[in-house]
């Protein structure tokens, strides 16, 4: 927890403020009269559901597109940010979710791309570049990153640090971070927060966008909530709590973020014994029973997704046995897994889950084509019925079944990915990061659905990097590290501290994700 | 995707308007408007003789574009098809003049087309080599092989009964045009209503998602290329049997015309989107423009430039449409 220092009291003039920003896209009013400011040495969090206008606002501030109305003021003077370069010159740097680095180049080259120190005749001054890189690393007390490392070989957390250094090398005084922890392990999140605190101490203003409330309470001084393109509230973090923030975000009260319902646990649906698939699945044994939600916790790179893909036949096992409902099975392909009643909702719905160019109807039936296409030809009526039921059951907000899936919001896309698998009436559902990157409202909806599915006797294996989600939803928690299951906790015994400690193991092994 | 929109025409007047704005509808309108406009300028353009010549002479391009569209929808490309059509036409003609039964001369290019394309598809799918590289290699092999083996000699003295273009169905519809229509309709229905047809869109739209849904990407790609080979064989047959002689060389730039028809027909070069109805209409439009140039006294050499403009206009329109969707 950060106690708000006196540095940015009402008296401290904001380094950046936006006043009455308006922005419309064809058919959508993205921002209406939004005002917002951030002071030197302050971390100001932006909170809101997907589509609330956060991304639009930061794109305006970073010069990606101009506002229709309102003004951006830096150091008390109105500025025109028509291009990203204008923003850079005004001292504004943005770190997007997708890191914009050159993987084949070194840390130093990435940091100084576009503004490398020069010698006469335009030659690059390599020595100065390396020295400046070292000075930056030293300034932020980063000791495990070398100027000559190739960026492609770094972990996501370290790459993000390179982007932060890049911003600093351009003398950025205002740093915008768009969901910086979305792809980070808990360990990297702690390290990121260390850096953010150091930036604060240097007087950098940070605009911090995140869905995760606990992060906001850990790092931010103030928080501004946007809803449907409008400013809802700006509060000092010290003066608010999670419940009231969620309420202002969604405009309604969410009783419980994790509506876990207790259901009778049945017979084992999935039994895995000594499953091996090198390099990341080593002698794994686990059981998931009907009606049970088993949470699989672990750091990124601990082998959780790899285990899921081995069970699902994407990367078939090399040895060990899998039993489905007691019968020993061999799974060599996703098609076989599907036939055995296993459904797998992958981690990255963008690249793995959804065919964006297809309609809602076509996406819903994709995993159940065998059901609606008897004799090789698709029965349109059956297909429409299947998709219609899915849309209703999952409360997908789409204009029609014929809407192109790629045009829906992230939460609705995730509901389709989830829903299309359930069209097959599976016995076992493997969910890999089911709520990553979707807003609080859609998240609660997915959690509610998970509870409902479990109560219908489905066995659920859930991989999640969000500890509160794992602890809130699971009947049992398994912890993976370096390809092995190293701990198991009952719901009662699974505390944040206990599971977190098991995930980390000792600190020297935590960076193996690189 | 326009396929989907078209299915809803009866249901909703708004959908009908949307369907009218689809690539297929725009192309059909363009074909008609162009015919009327050029006809007003020079009525001889509309003579039955000319219109049927345009269709007859270009049916093979439309047929080849059907297969090409499937390949592009699946996220691949084939630049060897022009050379393959040259080789298959020569094969068919050589068999015919050497006394093989006509039916053998007709079926041989179909079988050979399937084999060659399935082979390429297997290399692309199982060895994971980009289609453009594999088919570039095949283009050279076929083109070079053909000229070396035949020395570029023309095949003449083709037997009676070999010429498909001479036969007419019910005395009015020339066989090549009939085959073009049948091939297009069957392929369109198959693409839209069959599970393997849907798999092509899934693989082209998101290969990873398709794989996780139990759709085999390699098998789908080999299937697409085999089908493409069948249509290429059919195109070669139409090409070989329309004239009294077969030039045993590769028709210049044929693959480009075929790809143009697919792209102008609304098949997204990025994969996952498009229909074969569109590509057939585009093939007809391109042929019509080529013929129209003569009738409005413009050098027919301009056709290549016109094709280029068509490609750019279609692709730019497609991209702008996507951007507008993305922004909304």
Total count of helical runs of at least 4 residues of chain A = 18
Elements of chain B, N to C (H/E): HHHHHHHEEEHHHHEHHH
The main sheet of chain B comes to: 2 strands, antiparallel
| Major sheet summary line of chain A | 6 strands, mixed
What does this structure look like?
The complex is a heterodimer of chains A (514) and B (328). Chain A is α/β, with parallel strands linked by helices. Chain A folds into four domains: 14-91 and 173-251, 3-Layer(aba) Sandwich (Rossmann fold), CATH 3.40.50; 102-172, no CATH class; 266-341 and 427-514, Rossmann fold; 350-425, no CATH class. Helix content of chain A is 32%, strand content 25%. Chain A is built from 18 helices and 20 strands. Chain A has a six-stranded mixed sheet with strand order 6-7-8-3-9-10, sandwiched between helices. The longest helix of chain A has 16 residues, at 186-201. Chain A is globular. Mean pLDDT of chain A is 84; it is low at 1-11 and 506-514. Chain B is mostly helical. Chain B has a single domain (55-327), classed as ABC transporter involved in vitamin B12 uptake, BtuC (Orthogonal Bundle). Helices cover 72% and strands 2% of the residues of chain B. Chain B has helices at residues 2-6, 13-20, 23-41, 48-73, 81-97, 102-126, 131-150, 175-193, 195-205, 207-212, 217-240, 254-264, 276-295, 303-327, and strands spanning 154-155, 168-169, 173-174, 246-247. Chain B has a two-stranded antiparallel sheet. Chain B has a two-stranded antiparallel sheet with strand order 2-3. In chain B, strand 2 and strand 3 (173-174) form a beta hairpin. Residues 1-10 of chain B have low confidence and may be disordered. The interface between A and B is large, with 38 and 33 residues.
């Amino acid at each position: 927890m950060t106690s708000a220092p006196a540095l940015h009291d009402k008296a401290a003039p904001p380094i950046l403020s936006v006043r009455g920003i308006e922005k419309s896209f064809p058919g959508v009013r993205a921002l209406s009269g939004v005002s917002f400011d951030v002071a030197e040495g302050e971390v100001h969090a932006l909170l809101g559901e997907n589509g609330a206008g956060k991304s639009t606002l930061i794109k305006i501030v970073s010069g990606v597109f101009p506002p229709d109305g309102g003004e951006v003021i830096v150091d008390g003077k109105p500025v025109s940010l028509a291009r990203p370069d204008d923003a850079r010159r005004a001292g504004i740097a943005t770190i997007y979710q997708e890191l914009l680095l050159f993987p084949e180049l070194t840390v130093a080259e990435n940091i100084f791309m576009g503004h490398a120190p020069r010698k006469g005749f335009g030659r690059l001054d390599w020595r100065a570049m390396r020295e400046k890189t070292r000075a930056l690393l030293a300034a932020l007390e980063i000791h495990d990153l070398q100027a000559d490392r190739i960026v492609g070989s770094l972990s996501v957390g370290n790459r993000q640090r390179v982007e932060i250094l890049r911003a600093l090398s351009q003398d950025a005084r205002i740093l915008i971070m768009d969901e910086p922890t979305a792809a980070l392990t808990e360990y990297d999140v702690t390290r990121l927060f260390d850096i953010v605190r150091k930036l604060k101490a240097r007087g950098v203003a940070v605009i911090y966008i995140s869905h995760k409330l606990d992060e906001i309470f850990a790092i931010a001084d103030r928080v501004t909530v946007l809803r449907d393109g409008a400013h809802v509230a700006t509060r000092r973090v010290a003066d608010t709590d999670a419940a009231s923030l969620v309420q202002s975000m969604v405009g309604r009260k969410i009783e419980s973020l994790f509506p876990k319902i207790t259901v009778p646990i049945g017979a084992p649906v999935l039994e895995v014994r000594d499953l091996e698939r090198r390099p990341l699945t080593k002698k794994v044994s686990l059981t998931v029973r009907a009606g049970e939600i088993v949470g699989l916790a672990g750091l990124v790179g601990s082998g959780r997704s790899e285990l899921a893909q081995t069970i699902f036949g994407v990367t078939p096992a090399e040895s060990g046995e899998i039993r489905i409902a007691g019968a020993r099975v061999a799974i060599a392909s996703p098609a076989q897994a599907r036939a055995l009643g296993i459904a797998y909702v992958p981690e990255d719905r963008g690249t793995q889950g959804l065919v964006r160019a297809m309609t809602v109807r076509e996406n819903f039936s994709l995993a159940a084509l065998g059901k609606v296409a008897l004799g090789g030809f698709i029965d349109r009526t059956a297909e429409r019925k299947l998709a219609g039921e899915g849309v209703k059951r999952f409360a997908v907000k789409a204009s029609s079944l014929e809407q192109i899936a790629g045009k829906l919001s992230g939460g609705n896309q995730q509901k389709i990915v989830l829903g299309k698998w359930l069209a097959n009436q599976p016995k076992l559902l493997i969910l890999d990061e089911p709520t990553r990157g979707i807003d609080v409202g859609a998240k609660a909806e997915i959690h509610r659905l998970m509870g409902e599915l479990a109560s219908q006797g489905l066995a659920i294996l859930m991989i999640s990097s969000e500890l509160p989600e794992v602890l809130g939803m699971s009947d049992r928690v398994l912890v993976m590290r370096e390809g092995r299951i190293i701990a198991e906790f009952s719901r009662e015994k699974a505390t944040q501290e206990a599971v977190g400690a098991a995930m980390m193991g000792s600190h020297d092994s935590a960076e193996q994700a690189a | 995707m326009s396929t989907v929109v078209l299915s809803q025409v009866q249901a909703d007047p708004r959908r009908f308007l949307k369907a009218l704005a689809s690539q297929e509808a725009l192309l059909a309108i363009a074909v008609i408007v162009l015919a009327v406009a050029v006809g007003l300028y020079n009525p001889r353009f509309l003579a039955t003789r000319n219109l049927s010549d345009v269709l007859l002479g270009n049916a093979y391009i439309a047929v080849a574009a059907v297969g090409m569209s499937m390949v592009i929808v699946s996220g691949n490309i084939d630049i060897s098809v022009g050379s393959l059509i040259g080789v298959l036409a020569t094969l068919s003609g050589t068999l015919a003049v050497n006394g093989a039964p006509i039916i053998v001369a007709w079926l041989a290019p179909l079988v050979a087309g399937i084999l060659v394309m399935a082979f390429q598809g297997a290399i692309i799918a199982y060895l994971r080599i980009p289609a453009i590289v594999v088919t570039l290699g095949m283009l050279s092999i076929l083109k070079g092989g053909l000229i070396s083996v035949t020395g570029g000699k023309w095949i003449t003295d083709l037997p009676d009964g070999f010429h498909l273009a001479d036969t007419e169905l019910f005395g009015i519809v020339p066989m090549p045009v009939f085959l073009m229509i049948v091939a297009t309709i069957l392929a369109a229905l198959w693409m839209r209503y069959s599970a393997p047809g849907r798999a092509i869109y899934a693989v082209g739209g998101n290969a990873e998602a398709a794989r996780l849904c139990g759709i085999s990407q390699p098998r789908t790609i080999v299937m697409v290329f085999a089908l493409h080979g069948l249509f290429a064989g059919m195109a070669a047959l139409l090409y070989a049997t329309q004239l009294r002689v077969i030039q045993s060389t590769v028709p210049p730039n044929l693959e480009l015309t075929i790809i143009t028809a697919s792209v102008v027909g609304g098949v997204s070069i990025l994969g996952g989107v498009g229909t074969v109805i569109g590509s057939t209409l585009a093939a007809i439009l391109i042929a019509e423009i080529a013929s129209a140039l003569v009738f409005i006294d413009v050098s027919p050499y301009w056709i290549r430039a016109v094709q280029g403009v068509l490609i750019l206009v279609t692709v730019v329109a497609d991209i702008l449409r996507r951007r507008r969707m993305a922004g909304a």
